[in-house]
Amino acid sequence: MGAGAAFVFIRGLERMLSPNALRCVVAPFIAARVAVKRTHPVLPLPESLGRGNFQITKRQQGKNYLNTTLEFFPEQLGTPKWRDRLQITGAEYLASVRARKRPVILAFCHFGPYFLMRYWLRAAGFPVATLVEGQSQNRSALKRLEDRVSPFAEIPIAFGREDQLREAITFLSSGNALLVAIDILNGKQIDVPVDEHWKFGMASGAIRMAMRNSADLIPCSITEVDGWQFQIHLGPPVPAPLLESGDPLPVGKHLLDSMLPILRAHPGQCTERLIKQFTAIAPGNKSSHEPVAPSQLAAR
Q1: Global confidence as pTM
Q2: What is the third-level CATH fold of 3-299?
Q3: Is 43 helix (H, G, I), strand (E, B) or coil?
Q4: 24: which residues sit within 8 A by CB, 6+ positions away?
């Protein structure tokens, strides 16, 4: 089945079935798709997130693919049968900046079903957009279809980092909310200390954008707490004096410290991209923050 046909088919099913029934119908197709996918590598889990190893299992891949089903009908997520499947903690932070028509950047990591955040937030009445990697013209036809039926369809839902950065900044400075990832390799990076043994490589674009545009900066994460039951965690916002200082490192520390309890509570919802941003500090070399080889990690 092609992407367009699947889009129409699933949207039709959603209108006929309850969320639980829809999940049961879609699950076997997802399982068949996951069965032929490659096996993900085993990575050492940063001690700051818990001990042991990390791997995206077939089960986790299946859950991820199941969650992408919700992208097919984003305008339905605000309806009564879906509304109680999302809880938002810290919604008052976002409501406050929106009431004041303040620009706000929502800093997030590739953790949990992060790809659903913009749709769930729009369904909750917050017309956010996302700064996505690559060029806007390279977004798939399916993504464009999904964007077209999203709540607040008159407001852009995504800006390409490579070709629409100016438009994204204009959108932000007009008093809107923009989701920006902090665990990517593009642009300037800062090393944010986690503890005496670990550091986190953070893209500082979200921080610098907030500083240059006098925007509020709020950490944002999403977790799946049960089958198609989600929780979005917002805040606390970065204090204004930190942003006004012009130093991105303490701002990055605030963002990371706000997110770490959520990551530690749900390490299985991390992604390889996120895990690889954590680097061990070589013993006896804390000032230079040189990485430790995987073999050294295993011996610790």
Answers
A1: 0.89
A2: Glycerol-3-phosphate (1)-acyltransferase (3.40.1130)
A3: strand
A4: none
